[in-house]
């Protein structure tokens, strides 16, 4: 039996929720009940006599590739292991798992609402809507400024963030909280060079951004009497200096995963295009009708309209686009997802799919010809 991505969203979300509950079972009383409840959701998906029948059995399966117990046509999903040997969620869960998250208990009270991180209970659109609800009544410009502010300031000294917010005339958009324990080391934290959100610090002295394509992985070097330093692993960009936890804050994980991570690519591409001579790019025009609109500086008509989609699984992305088509002319994938081009072309024959560099080069050539 194989199932469509949409039908798989429920058991996958349940598996991730159970995995998270397992990882915090010592601190959160509700965790056991959540694992039992999610076992129920997965049992309903399989039907009588198939799949895991007890919470302990489910927890065992969460340590194995999903495809070995939950049949799927999506190779990315089939290879996903939810719980690592350390009993914590694996980094892939933050990548592939998020592509599938749905609101499992829509229309009823979700007992996990108060303690489960929202990216495990809500779809990206819900997290976005909630973050920007204060902006949608304002002007298009306010919306763009606010959204950009959040992407560029996901963590830092609280005073500095508040000052910037006030200087831009923005209302408070989302909650900023102290740097979580698992992102600290002896009173310090490090922002990921790409997304600026606090990197995770493992007990073995490894520091990394949990969004794998950022390739930010480091070994903590702690010379006697000297301040700690991060040694980049192969291919990692050099890390910034350590910051003090005292007085520092960051946005919630769901905002990071659904607004900041994709926003980094959207803003980077916008800024590159906007710097081209004779070209103007608009970020989130019409309060996010699409991500980027491109015009000739002298004209009103859109020349290109772009929507950036950052999914770990091409199958899940295609399912999403089929469910809700994009309104932009091009679907842009980050450069680090360029391997998906061929498969997306096959899965979405009617959609123009390009990488960020491909579309940048096309617009850049056009700008040169106009000169
Ligand atoms: Zn990062």
From TrEMBL:
Domain pPIWI-RE three-gene island residue range list: 11-156
Coiled coil spans: none
Ranges where the REase associating with pPIWI RE domain occurs: 263-370
InterPro entries: pPIWI_RE_REase, pPIWI_RE_Y
Listed name of the protein: REase associating with pPIWI RE domain-containing protein
Species name: Nonomuraea rosea
Lineage: Bacteria, Bacillati, Actinomycetota, Actinomycetes, Streptosporangiales
